[in-house]
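Pipeline run #58 for the internal structure catalog. This entry was flagged by the ingest filter as a single-chain record with no existing model, so it goes straight to prediction. Upstream metadata was stripped on purpose; only the residue string is passed forward. Reviewer on rotation: M.T. Logging verbosity set to normal.
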Amino acid sequence: MASRPLPRPDAVGSWTAELLAQGWCVLSDAVPPGLVQALDDDLRPAFDRTLFCKGDFYGHRTKRLGSLLARSEHADAFVRHPHVLDIVERVLAPWCDTVQLNLTQAIEIHPGAPRQFPHRDQDMWQGVKGEVEYLVNVMWPFTPFTAENGATIVYPDSHGASALTEGEPEGAFAAEMAPGSALLFLGSTLHGAGANRTPAIRRGMIVSYCLGWLKPYENQWLAYPPSVARHFPPELAALVGYRQHRPNLGNVEGQCPSVLLEDALPERWGAVDALRPDQAEMAAAFRRSVE
């Protein structure tokens, strides 16, 4: 694949600021179109076997596929795109110790599909709204996204505290993009797929990242059980859930779940603290006070 030009100095900082300010941003030419084509080719047989969705939200003229890291070796390049991960970590860092993969989902919107119900993905969790960002979504087009074929409709400035305002804000637009570019938008940003008024299928992929202590949309441990995840690079295995989130969240017998990816499991187990520094210091201070 041809190499991509390096971003301008502190481009990640500029993209992050843009994402936080308006609720969305676009990374143009983020990956080579050939890489997009390779992933699309790998997923095509699975799409052919997949039934149309049921339900007014998923869409009766839409097909959806998950577990993409197990379906194509090319998916990792998108999931661990360095600039995307850097942006995601900067956005979500105030509310978590580590981020995790929320889902990978390839989507086909077929001719005749109506416009999707406008929604905010943060609403899958019943936490406080308007103060915390729970996730960042990344939409990767496999085919050109146009206003006519169902490109994602984004409502700018509908994020953050504005998410508490009822109704659809003005200024909605179709995020038209070519394969190789990526649309990033916050979990608090109002959005939805557009109607496909063309005779061709619109295909793309959503990769979503959320706070490491949340229950993810896609059950990552069933999508990528240890028999699959042990073949992932350690950083990818951690991203899909094979690491603890301090304090002690997501452990197995009190240890980091990455132990399940080793060649042999321990014969004897013993829990090990996984605390934030402030918690570790408080626990140590209390221990000293009672000794």
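catalog note: The longest strand covers residues 99-109.
catalog note: The beta strands are 24-27, 62-65, 99-109, 135-141, 152-154, 173-174, 182-186, 191-193, 202-211.
status: ready for reviewer M.T.
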